[in-house]
Design the sequence.
């Protein structure tokens, strides 16, 4: 029996009593990925990126493992919820917040203010917080300054995502000086996320020229970032005693961990192993998260149609953002239909073996976005499964 058939048999058996659509996480693969990421971090603590998990039980599970410490959340309401629900007492909010209600809650509670660090890259972020709660009427707000990690090789050329306006070490030093001069704030951290390295696979299938271009870009941009980040950290430390410097992601774990200016790394997607990480040469996680749909039609020979399927990932529109029919092996989308909201016809040799009521297991292109489609995931341990609510199942859609 092939590994794929063995996995399919185990998933089918563990969830046989459940109706589709359903999502499942293989705990053996999840734990193996967590252990592998810890090895790649070379002893530096890993902050789990909650966006890529979105299941409290799994966040708690990985935080109990050696080498994992703290959460990187993406909105302040989520951070507050995670602290109040006892998941963690250390949350870094990875994006600036303008949520006045959440800021009021944060600044009214010393426990929250001590546990949560929020992101800033401009004095206007401080102005907004002051407008909600004046400095003398609140505990100090913990701040993290974000350094833009994109690569600017020449003139207006910009490689990477558009994040912080703070790009140079000099700009970081100026902002740090302005932040520490403001009452009611404490600058405790820095972050620089190299999205063009951590979030871009260097081996896209069937795109040899693009792969070579990506590898060249990453080889040339990483040394520049290492030098600039080190200078920026030094410039900020002249004004603030930083508790941590965060960087990286699943796709750049080893390279970022080797940077002496970084004290911790972040990861989340590597726990689930979505299909986008199949395009990385350095390390590929074991697929751990899946969703199952049922065959409802056989419209023609060698075609099997499942109900639903259009669980498309965010990012640039294209085939890489579609889910992948995974098990049974030997299935693919029809080019003229793709993954549909209501029905998804699948073709290939395996389609002839499928009948109405049979299941097809898919992998999502991204990690946590899978959890926006279901109220619970089923945690598969051996040949049994136990439900765990997703954020959505607990009534939260923090990025929805």
Sequence:
């Amino acid at each position: 029996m092939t590994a794929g058939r063995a996995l399919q048999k185990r998933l089918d058996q563990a969830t046989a009593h459940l109706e589709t659509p359903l999502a499942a996480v293989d705990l053996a693969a999840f734990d193996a990925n967590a252990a592998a990421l810890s090895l790649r971090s070379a002893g530096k603590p890993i902050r789990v990126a909650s966006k890529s998990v979105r299941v409290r039980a799994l966040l708690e599970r990985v935080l109990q493992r050696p080498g994992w410490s703290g959460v990187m959340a993406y909105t302040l309401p989520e951070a507050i919820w995670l602290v109040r629900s006892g998941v963690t007492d250390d949350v870094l909010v990875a994006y600036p917040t303008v949520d006045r209600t959440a800021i009021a809650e944060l600044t009214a509670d010393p426990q929250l203010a001590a546990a949560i660090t929020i992101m800033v890259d401009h004095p206007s972020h401080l102005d907004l917080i002051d407008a909600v709660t004046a400095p003398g009427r609140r505990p100090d707000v913990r701040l993290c300054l974000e350094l833009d990690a994109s690569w600017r090789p020449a003139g207006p050329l910009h490689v990477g995502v558009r994040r912080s306006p703070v790009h140079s070490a000099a700009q970081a030093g100026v902002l740090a000086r302005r932040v520490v001069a403001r009452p009611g704030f404490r600058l405790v951290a820095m972050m620089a996320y190299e999205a063009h390295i951590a979030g871009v696979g260097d081996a896209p299938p069937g795109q040899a020229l693009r792969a070579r271009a990506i590898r060249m870009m990453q080889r040339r941009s990483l040394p520049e970032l290492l030098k600039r980040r080190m200078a920026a950290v030094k410039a900020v430390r002249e004004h603030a005693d930083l508790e941590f410097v965060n960087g990286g992601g699943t796709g750049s774990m080893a390279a970022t961990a080797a940077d002496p200016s970084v004290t911790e790394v972040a990861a989340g997607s590597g726990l689930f192993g979505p299909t986008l990480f199949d395009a990385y040469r350095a390390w590929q996680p074991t697929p751990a998260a899946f969703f199952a749909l049922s065959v409802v039609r056989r419209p023609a020979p060698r075609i099997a149609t499942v109900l639903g399927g259009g669980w498309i990932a965010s990012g640039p529109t294209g085939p890489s953002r579609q889910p992948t029919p995974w098990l049974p092996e030997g299935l693919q989308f029809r080019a003229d239909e793709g993954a549909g909201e209501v029905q998804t016809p699948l073709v290939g040799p395996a389609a002839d073996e499928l009948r109405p009521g049979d299941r097809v297991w898919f992998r999502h292109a991204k990690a946590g976005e899978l959890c926006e489609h279901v109220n619970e995931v089923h945690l598969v341990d051996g040949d049994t499964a136990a439900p765990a609510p997703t954020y959505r199942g607990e009534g939260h859609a923090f990025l929805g």
